[in-house]
Amino acid sequence: MAENRGKPHAIMISVPYQGHINPFVNLALKIASKGFSITFVHFEFVHHRLSKAHHLHCNKTQVDIFSEARESGLDIRYTTISDGFPLEFDRDANYEEFWGRVLHEFPSRVDEFVRKTIKSDPYLLHFLVADTVFSWPATIAEKYNLVNVSLWTEPALVFTLAYHVDLLIENGHFPCKVNNIHEEVNYVPGVKSISTRDLISVSMESAQGYNYTMLESVFMAFEQVKKADFILHNTVHELEAETLSVLNKYQPNYAIGPINFFKNLPTYTVSKSLWSESDCS
Question: How many domains does the chain have?
Fold first, then answer.
């Protein structure tokens, strides 16, 4: 494998939800079009859902969602990783149990996967591209001496609210109680003014109380992202210049969006939708 010596290789792992999968797939295609190698990792249950939605064979040795992209000359490898639950486990109905395992047990699975990937081809220049929402990227990147790239799939304004969660806590707005949902938040750097009712949904008190698993997720993820080498945002710089300028005072942040509309890429060849699609024309 010495022919790969010095070639950049991105290990890309997305959160298993549609709004995260689409930009991750498109970014993988974009990076590959620049001559990089990619290993794209889906959760096993996501692969299974994609296979069912697009009437593909469910055996991962038979289905490779990037096969056509690779035939076009892009170096994208595709694999899956288990979250520890059986495929038939209802992750939506058991959201807190599922996400609790993603927070606390899934990182060891990623660690083992990254170790084996690096060992299988030590000549590549490996780096990590992980979803900001994950709780483990900095820990694993540091362990294997990888450049740590964090991809935030939402507007930068949402990012900076979570990034400055300490200020929200200090002002009594995180978590946000029901009787505080119409207060003004005007103290977060990069955000002129926003109502508490427009804060990230996981911070809101519901009739059932707080979702403590997701509150923990926010804390863990945004402690990790502060150690990223740089952060990519699925946004347009001109629309969020002030917010990005503030974030760049802490660490490098780049607007690369809208990722879903990259031009001249074979995005149509990759099955991304978790639901069946039909042509209504």
Answer: 1
